[in-house]
């Protein structure tokens, strides 16, 4: 049994070292002290992942740590921001040192690969949940908001769709091998941070797909005051999705499934090829899946009965 | 029953208006975009308040909202930082619109009185808990860390002690009138932000009292590599505390009780009077309660059996 302080020290300590990343004071005082880049905007977002709402409580702890950070970082990616810092709040029902160590491994590993410094945290007793606030930076007027889509723009998506929903389906069937591509997509999503930065100056708007393509596309169109003609046949399907769900199920998962954490962007047609070239250099496809229209509304798909991934009332995974 | 999106819109909308406070883009996109003050350090802290661990689940919702923000802001106060922005993560078992509206009232009211802009949020289904990440600013080298106490410094505390523990005791006895001074101290603590800024350049170190005077003093001494002679008779007791707990109980509450959210600071003796003058201008006493020593350890009090407010294993209020 560990005290709150012991736990914090144990699982946050690895990241307080290494202050090259604009961290004047890391974990261990009342606040972290950070050094923002002069002239840049600070991009901030928070996401909380609750056990058996957003992820299975019995998932491997390192995947829970990775995933909780990844879904927050995905918001920075969608803004075209460079990820810099994060703080994390963990509530857990009991102080299980092995669980926390494995959780921290997954969290810290993603910190390292994305260049993010964990600069503070908080551990409480409670239902298993992880809240992560991420902070990034972006030069003024370079941020990719949801509001910039213009009629005539291409609609495009990074990577592949439906993997989140497909992975959840495989999990429910009892699959536990994280090497399974769909399970990896569901439990170990990769935030598209490098892609987001590469799309600065090309994309006119962006959002990350957390609630499902159709729902998030709706948010983007609403914020931009535009409509869209979607090409459902063009949706890039995740590896193994048709095998797992059948053709109609796969298309439905790509359209309405949540947890894909790909970027949905709009671009002037003249910018599409350059954007595809930049992302191909990262090994990431950028697929055109529709066209923005002046007239509001979404055509090309039937009105879905699924409103996307909603937590009230939510279905536990 | 409201969807996550409806709830967020309803309870966050009031704060997205009014962008005078360095908010280029508030609630409603993937991230908030903030404008840090050039040359200042960004102070960041997160605290999560869990129902029946940190506060009674049946407390008035507006008090829960106030308190969750207050405890995070208290960390900025202890750093001498000016509070600027916050993001909030709320998990709640059901989407009760009246509850959320009252909760939001309490949260927003404290935002207004402290000049903090709520710039983002996240609502999930789960056990009732509120995580608040606060961001503030402080000029380089002006931050009040825990590590600056020097032998010979005075130890002083703002306001009065024991009110948090006394209020919790009254709550357990069935008191529900928020006009009761002790209950106010427990459920509606006031973060000492103005005091923290006023102590810049005078205090050599600071910490806020969340885990109890003795526990937090221990943290400060450890970070500074010093010891302390405490004057227990000098502790300023909260109004109504002796009546509620008796003399020995009151002294114990002041020494070991949590949730006071006063500032514990050290100052060179020559600075004490000026610090008291500045805080008196805010109507806040600053009481000398001990002296920092070169020799580690805490004298003046018996070794306490209470290690302060710990959440593992924690006692529910």
From TrEMBL, chains A, B:
UniProt KW keywords: ATP-binding, Kinase, Magnesium, Metal-binding, Nucleotide-binding, Thiamine biosynthesis, Transferase
Binding site for Mg(2+) 5: 211
Gene3D superfamilies on file: PurM-like C-terminal domain, PurM-like, N-terminal domain
Binding residue positions for Mg(2+) 4: 30, 45, 75
Annotated PurM-like N-terminal domain residues: 28-138
Segments for region (Disordered): 297-317
InterPro entries linked: PurM-like_C_dom, PurM-like_C_sf, PurM-like_N, PurM-like_N_sf, ThiL-like
Binding site for Mg(2+) 3: 30, 75, 208
Miscellaneous note of the record: Reaction mechanism of ThiL seems to utilize a direct, inline transfer of the gamma-phosphate of ATP to TMP rather than a phosphorylated enzyme intermediate.
Reactions the enzyme catalyzes: thiamine phosphate + ATP = thiamine diphosphate + ADP
Binding sites annotated in the UniProt record for substrate: 54, 259, 309
Highest taxon listed in the record's lineage: Bacteria
UniProt binding sites for ATP: 121-122, 146, 210
Binding positions for Mg(2+) 2 per the UniProt entry: 47, 75
GO BP annotations, alphabetical order: thiamine biosynthetic process; thiamine diphosphate biosynthetic process
Family as reported in the entry's similarity comment: Belongs to the thiamine-monophosphate kinase family.
Xref: Pfam families: AIRS, AIRS_C
Protein name per its UniProtKB record: Thiamine-monophosphate kinase
GO-annotated molecular function: ATP binding; magnesium ion binding; thiamine-phosphate kinase activity
Free-text function comment from the UniProt entry: Catalyzes the ATP-dependent phosphorylation of thiamine-monophosphate (TMP) to form thiamine-pyrophosphate (TPP), the active form of vitamin B1.
Encoding gene per record: thiL
Entry EC no(s): 2.7.4.16
Pathway as given in its UniProt record: Cofactor biosynthesis; thiamine diphosphate biosynthesis; thiamine diphosphate from thiamine phosphate: step 1/1
């Amino acid at each position: 049994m560990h005290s709150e302080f012991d736990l914090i020290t144990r699982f946050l300590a690895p990241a307080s070292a290494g202050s090259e990343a604009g961290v004047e004071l890391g974990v261990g005082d009342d606040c972290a002290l950070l050094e923002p880049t002069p002239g840049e905007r600070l991009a901030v977002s928070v996401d909380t992942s609750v056990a058996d709402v957003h992820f299975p409580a019995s998932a491997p702890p390192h995947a829970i740590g990775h995933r909780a950070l990844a879904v927050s970082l995905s918001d920075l990616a969608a803004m075209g921001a460079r990820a810099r810092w994060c703080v994390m709040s963990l509530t857990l029902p009991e102080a299980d040192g092995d669980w926390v160590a494995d959780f921290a491994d997954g969290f810290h590993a993603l910190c390292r690969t994305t260049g993010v410094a964990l600069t503070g945290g908080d551990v409480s007793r409670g239902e298993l949940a992880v809240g992560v606030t991420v902070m990034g930076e972006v030069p003024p007027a370079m941020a990719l908001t949801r509001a910039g889509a213009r009629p005539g723009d291409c609609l495009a998506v990074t990577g592949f769709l439906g993997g989140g929903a497909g992975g959840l389906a495989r999990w429910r069937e009892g699959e536990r091998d994280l090497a399974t591509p769909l399970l990896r997509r569901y439990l170990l999503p990769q935030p598209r941070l490098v892609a987001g930065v590469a799309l600065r100056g090309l994309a006119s708007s962006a959002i990350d797909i957390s609630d499902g393509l159709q729902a998030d596309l709706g948010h983007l169109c609403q914020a931009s005051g535009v409509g869209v003609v979607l090409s459902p046949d063009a949706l890039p399907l995740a590896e193994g999705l048709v095998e797992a769900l059948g053709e109609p199920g796969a298309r439905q998962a790509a359209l309405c499934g949540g947890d894909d954490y790909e970027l949905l962007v709009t671009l002037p047609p003249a910018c599409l090829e350059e954007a595809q070239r930049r992302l191909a250099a990262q090994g990431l496809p950028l697929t055109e899946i529709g066209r923005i229209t002046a007239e509001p509304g979404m055509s090309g798909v039937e009105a879905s009965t699924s409103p996307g991934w909603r937590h009230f009332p939510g279905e536990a995974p």
